[in-house]
Design goal:
With 452 residues, the chain is α/β, with parallel strands linked by helices. The chain has a domain of 306 residues: TIM Barrel (Alpha-Beta Barrel), CATH 3.20.20.140. The chain has 13 helices and 17 strands. Strands 1, 2, 3, 4, 5, 6, 15, 16 and 17 form a 9-stranded mixed sheet that branches. A hairpin with a 2-residue loop joins strand 2 and strand 3. Helix 4 crosses helix 6 and helix 7 runs parallel beside helix 10. 55% of the residues are buried. About 6% of the residues have low confidence.
């Protein structure tokens, strides 16, 4: 058994907040109450338990049970206790690129950031376009301590030509389908994928960048491209494909997500589409609601990403979309690359940054502290919303629900100076950010604990 005491509990599904104790056993939350006393535990299945003595200087640390006991206690006074975060857009690079990240190091980074569930993208080498390859990823995921799920590919070999056996991938455990990293250019393929996904009751996620409008990807066509003397990526690349796919989705019944949205026009297109189609969803990354193209001029390749960082008006539109629910999910697009790769010239270096370990903190600093979202609303976008889109039993706190929990101090700052990820490609290195994670609990077991 595991007892979390005196934390400020926030459940984004029900909206309930307040100081509570939480008791977990066998991977489930068995009780949430204002006060869970020692005598309350007598007679619980598994035996009688005694609480460890309170020690003022031990707050925030796990206290070992007394000899022969089975209870672990975490004093969370002054901390937020929330459902484990859910990231539905991550790259763990396994198989094929494990020098950048692997499933085990990626899971450690997730746990440090407060995530207990992640959904992997399928653009590995080889891609997860068959049941056999998908099972390899999922089997390794079971060994990590957190919930590692994965999408399957929409098209064979990510070539955009022929649909995979989506039914077989679903049976093998695919959480959804995507060719993230490569846009699907053929309308007939997109439409067929939507119809099949609706039949299988699995969501689709789309990478929306039309290469016809791109000369150098990863850098916005504007101030940043002019600064480097390159063509860059025009905003129309995203707008064009978002408009097309929202139109194609009408009437299919398919749940679709517009991934890592970056332009104000795309936000408005999604907002309008959602008025008539409840199956439309969108995700935003912490870097897109935090940074603008000026960051590329300052940090170079460490701020190069697809789609690129845009203008201040785009950043504010993304925040507005998160406020009014146009954008349902915050997802990191955690994209590890090696130091050597990111040190290549701007037009050659790969796009992407890591994000699992800084996402919660950026959400607190940029959205909560600045008054755009409440803490509960942020957690809804980072836990319950993503879980709901992928039909996951996650992202909430309730008796009988999963004991997947993050415990953090909202205002306490920490220095971004080291990562659990294999890679360190982040423009946030060296910054002090609020939201220190003290513990991450998955299935009732501690998978990350802050060390002094």
């Amino acid at each position: 058994m595991f007892l979390i005491k005196s934390g400020y509990v926030i459940d984004p599904r029900s909206g309930v907040e307040g100081v509570r104790d939480i008791l977990a056993d066998r991977g489930k939350i068995v009780r949430i109450a204002a006060k869970i006393r020692e005598e309350d535990l007598e007679g619980e299945e598994g035996g009688n338990f005694r609480l460890a003595e309170e020690e003022g200087n031990n707050r925030g640390n796990i206290k070992a049970p007394e000899a022969g006991g089975k209870l672990r206690v975490f004093d969370a006074e002054g901390m937020v206790v929330a459902p484990g975060l859910v990231d539905v857009h991550v790259h763990f690079r396994d198989p094929g690129f494990t020098y950048k990240e692997d499933i085990f190091t990626g899971a450690k980074a997730a746990a440090k950031g407060g995530f207990t569930t992640v959904v992997l993208m399928a653009n590995t080498k080889p891609p997860a376009d068959s049941a056999e390859r998908l099972r390899y990823v999922l089997e390794r995921g079971t060994q990590t301590g957190i919930h590692v799920l994965s999408c399957g590919n929409i098209t064979v070999g990510m070539k955009g030509e022929k649909l995979t056996d989506m039914g077989a991938l679903r049976e093998a455990g695919a959480a959804g389908f995507t060719d993230d990293g490569i846009p699907l250019l053929k309308e007939e393929v997109v439409r067929a994928a939507m119809e099949e996904a609706a039949r299988l009751d699995r969501p689709l996620s789309f990478h929306e960048e039309n290469p016809a409008f791109i000369q150098n990807n990863g850098v916005n066509r504007g101030k940043a491209s002019e600064y480097y003397g390159i063509g860059g990526s025009d905003r129309q690349a995203e707008i064009d494909m978002v408009k097309r796919d929202l139109a194609l989705a009408a009437g299919t019944g398919a749940d679709i997500s517009i991934q890592h949205i970056s332009t104000k026009e795309a936000v408005e297109l999604v907002r309008e589409a959602k008025r008539s189609n409840p199956h439309i969803h969108a995700e935003a990354t912490p870097h897109h609601f935090t940074l603008t193209e000026e960051a590329v001029m300052e940090h170079g390749t460490l701020a190069k990403m697809n789609p690129p960082l845009r203008e201040e008006a785009d950043r504010l539109a993304i925040i507005k979309g998160l406020q009014d629910g146009t954008i349902d999910m915050i997802a990191t697009d955690h994209a590890p690359h090696s130091k050597e790769e990111k040190e290549k010239p701007l037009t050659v270096a790969p796009s992407g940054i890591i994000g699992l370990e800084t996402a919660l903190s950026l959400g607190i600093r940029e959205l909560v502290e600045k008054g755009y979202l409440t803490m509960g609303e942020l957690l809804e976008r980072m836990a319950w919303g993503p879980a709901r889109f992928y039909r996951l039993d996650a992202g909430y706190l309730a008796e009988g629900g999963p004991a997947d929990i993050v415990i953090f101090k909202r205002e306490e700052k920490w220095l971004v100076d080291r990562f659990e990820s294999k890679s360190a490609n982040s423009p946030f290195c060296g910054m002090e950010l609020p939201g220190t994670v003290y513990a991450t609990v998955c299935g009732g077991k501690i998978v990350y604990r802050k060390t002094v």
